[in-house]
UniProtKB/TrEMBL annotation, chains A, B:
Catalyzes the NADPH-dependent formation of L-aspartate-semialdehyde (L-ASA) by the reductive dephosphorylation of L-aspartyl-4-phosphate. GO terms for molecular function: aspartate-semialdehyde dehydrogenase activity; NAD binding; NADP binding; protein dimerization activity. The active site is at 129 (acyl-thioester intermediate), 249 (proton acceptor). This is Aspartate-semialdehyde dehydrogenase. Its EC number is 1.2.1.11. Keywords: Amino-acid biosynthesis, Diaminopimelate biosynthesis, Lysine biosynthesis, Methionine biosynthesis, NADP, Oxidoreductase, Threonine biosynthesis. It comes from Liquorilactobacillus hordei DSM 19519. Phosphate binds at residue 100. The gene is asd. Residues 5-120 form the Semialdehyde dehydrogenase NAD-binding domain. Homodimer. PANTHER family: ASPARTATE-SEMIALDEHYDE DEHYDROGENASE (PTHR46278:SF2), DEHYDROGENASE, PUTATIVE-RELATED (PTHR46278).
Amino acid sequence: MDGYNVAIVGATGAVGTRMIQMLEESVLPIASVKYLASKRSAGKVLKFKNEDVVVEELVPDSFNDVNLALFSAGGGVSKKFAPEAIKRGAVVVDNTSAFRMEEGVPLVVPEVNEKALYEHKGLIANPNCSTIQMVVALEPLRKVYGLKKVIVTTMQAVSGAGNRAIQELHDETKAILNGEEYKPQILPVSGDKKHYQIAFNPLAQIDVFEDDGYSHEEWKMIHETKKIMSDQDLQVTATCVRVPVAVAHSETVWFELEKSGADVAKLQSILKEAPGVVLEDDPKNQIYPQAVNAEGKKDTFVGRIRADNEQANSFHLYCVSDNLLKGAAWNSVQIAERLHALNLMRVPD
Amino acid sequence: MDGYNVAIVGATGAVGTRMIQMLEESVLPIASVKYLASKRSAGKVLKFKNEDVVVEELVPDSFNDVNLALFSAGGGVSKKFAPEAIKRGAVVVDNTSAFRMEEGVPLVVPEVNEKALYEHKGLIANPNCSTIQMVVALEPLRKVYGLKKVIVTTMQAVSGAGNRAIQELHDETKAILNGEEYKPQILPVSGDKKHYQIAFNPLAQIDVFEDDGYSHEEWKMIHETKKIMSDQDLQVTATCVRVPVAVAHSETVWFELEKSGADVAKLQSILKEAPGVVLEDDPKNQIYPQAVNAEGKKDTFVGRIRADNEQANSFHLYCVSDNLLKGAAWNSVQIAERLHALNLMRVPD
């Protein structure tokens, strides 16, 4: 074959536009691309490697002759259209939460659980952005020392809530600096009842709240991590906070290893060689990960590795990654690259 | 007596101006105020209850006839001038880190360890801002259930680094929104070698780094908490992050209680009645603490109380407080109020 016919569902969104960019840079053989979106966005013209591509309205027959469909247009769209794509022979990589916890659907971060791809039945789920960067940072340490418990606090960029949230942060910040009124309409959660100021104001809510007081984002970090690491006994707990940052999530991660024998130097040397990780850990020279440095990069940046001085086998790390790239678009395209490399880019009979 | 002669050292700073405001609102009987600062700021005119007060240059004899001196002009100034004030009969409440860990110097948050005031020898230290709000939130729970371990992540406002840092956040944010260059000169730490962008960019450095990789701010949270709670066995570990917020620190606090029997409802009902605490914990109605709501208030706002679903007696809370008020100026004035109420406003022989 000359290459794959690739469809991007939600091509005009914050993640969709990054999916295009990641495909342009990808080693994946591509015969054609098709940009799909809602009726509202149909007719817009976007580029692919300097060629014009007209955005088409998403309908079931959009997937005729498509080999690979990357979805990032909300859970509802995935639930409705992913089965249509698979039925027509397209392998789906879904960046929404629609199918992530469904049994039999691989939830994949290639650096962690690539082998789960062998079990796919036409659909692979891309994990939540805040989960991905954390497991990329922890997996290399887990391989050597085992992992018992994780306590994470996230400081998440508004771009996780889409382009309208980026715009709101921008407009609201400008208004406040000018002493003008601004009425928030998107953040913290566009579909929830109340909207609050994000400019200069962290918001301890990402997604809606569960009955036990956890936000759904926190729930995702807990349960997706267990699934990706295939370890239901791994203890994970989380607090997710939206902060006035446009792109790249920052996370403080406290973790307890199962085995003894680790120290800071050993953890650093493991992470220095780990796939998808860039170690930035030299506090005396003020080297630690920063959102502005991570933006536009595919890696997860890790630093501030320290021992918990009062609990055995327990440490801190700080990780930062571009939530739209490794947290979404790049991880999806990376999954597609691995499907190709492993000869798995087909819907099984 | 008619009241105290009160001196404010560092009266023109971010904390100093709030000390003035807190004194204006205080029940403390005040006969006179004196505003002291460096030579550079001498001659400026500030108000006290609508009266003009000319800022004077700080010299040892500034403290003649002063009964109470509130210091917030940096550790070096405190080290040099606090002994001069005490020698002249003034009780010193010091908001710098100069004497906090010194044996025999009470480190006081009135809601937690007011009784330590009885031991003062003329000087009482005011704890670090990020520590104060955490111990205000935890102490009521500790009283009932004991406290074994704390893991905290802070998201701290730039005003902790003074008025110049607030200005830098403002100017830098404006420049970035306008697509202009901006060269940071203050944050993360004015005295450290490199300065980084804080606008839209969390910085995992507050104060300089220790040899074990902890920042000095993290070190303060660990050791000050143990001293305030008089419990060297209490495990505390911390990650401190500066975020693009002007005023009010936000903290995610995971904690393990010593005794069993606690649940979310019980912790909430304890905190609802706790001194200095306002419970804002109703996730279903999107009620949780926010920096913009805490700014200008004296309380510590607590919410997001949840069980760690996988570890016994372990919970999360989220606390937010105005770092310039309860974290600094108000706690200092509150200490003075308590010294007065307990008849301790004098330097012991």
